[in-house]
Design a protein that fits this description.
Number of strands of chain B: 11
Distance between the termini of chain B: 46 Å
Strand order of the largest sheet of chain A: 4-3-7-6-5
Strand content of chain B: 15-25%
CATH architecture of chain A: 2-Layer Sandwich
Oligomer: heterodimer
Strand order of the largest sheet of chain B: 2-1-3-10-4-11
Structural class of chain B: alpha/beta
Largest interface: A-B, 28 and 22 residues
Order of helices and strands of chain A: EEEEHHHEEEH
Strand content of chain A: 25-35%
Number of domains of chain B: 2
Number of domains of chain A: 1
CATH class of the largest domain in chain B: Alpha Beta
Structural class of chain A: alpha+beta
Amino acid sequence: MGSPIPDAHKPDLPAEQITLTYHDGTSRTVYDTGVERPYPDGKLIVSRTDLDGIITHVNDAFVEISGYHVDELIGQQHYILRHPDMPKAAYQDLWDTAKAGKKWHGYVKNLCKDGSHYWVYATVVPNVRRGETVGYTSVRRKPSRSKIEAAMAQYAQMKQDEEG
Amino acid sequence: MTTHNMLIAPDFSPERFAGWHMFNTLIQKRANLNMHLNIPASHAEQETLIEAGVIQIIYANPFDAAALIREQGYRAVARPIGKSDEMVIAAAANSDINHLEDIHKGATVAMADNRDVKLIGLRLLEAVDIEESDLNWDITETYQAAARKVIKGDAQAAFFLAEIFHSFSRLTKAQLSVLIESDLADISHVLLIKDDFPDAQIFIEAILDLHSDDDGKEALTELGMPEGFEAMSEEDAEFMIDLMQTLLD
């Protein structure tokens, strides 16, 4: 199965090139410039997906910080935002928790279209309608610097463990 | 003719009071129904009225709407256009608190008793590693009293409902500096009706048509919602409730 998301464009800034392989077996080339985008003060970054992780809704703050056009996001797998520094186990935990019908909280480093990134404190809840889960809502808030630093250390260790 | 009871959540700016009475007069005339307006002075009074089971229509704040829809048999039918519920954290203009980062553990925050404002404010303070238990809370009768506390230096910061903060006099605002204003956008008050409300359709039509003539526009302007109401589907309400669930912790 080929990658449903096109490879990222090589940014003008110096960037590390990485091939990401997702849980569905598809791969994609992305770039990491190491540039951090500031979280927009006072805002929430909101998205919704269907049961398969396909994006069905994004708010303006989501579109703006991601660097993508809204049309490049709707209908795409949510992992379009996955940053290569994020351990697979973090997403596994997210999906296991949400699919069990529970709320998931965690710190996430997201990748922008241009290879920059932004940190969020994300909460994911299942959308339960008449007793049935029909999708998921993810709402991000601004994380503190100390929490970001703790997450960086934790994720680096988890990545190291995953790569053995 | 049966008289219906409408309840207005108590967290509105005092200057909107006349607007709600104009709204009620117009809706009664246009939907041809009798409606008694209940304006509780506090959240506790609101709960007592709702628990008594006599309220058919509620202009509810978004956090109350979640329980009213999911547990108490109300459904959302409309919301004000372009009027999301936001809050402001401010300090005295002449203090050395100029950024959220300048609020330290042990600080006193003044605010009127409004758990939604408090909840959103606490979410914003997470970004500077401040939690509820890190602060001393001075709960005032009104937001104006909270403003006075912070201006006098009795509190280091104050939380306000944004609409009320922006309605303060120029003199009051000049003595305060805004540290942050929320821009959550997707969360607003909602108009709820009881599932078995008999005159639902005519009532909803009257609400959605309010902005289409001068009398309606005048009432809406008094309410600070000049663009009027838009219809809200069951899914719109569920989406907002899901979003709010994420903010509870």
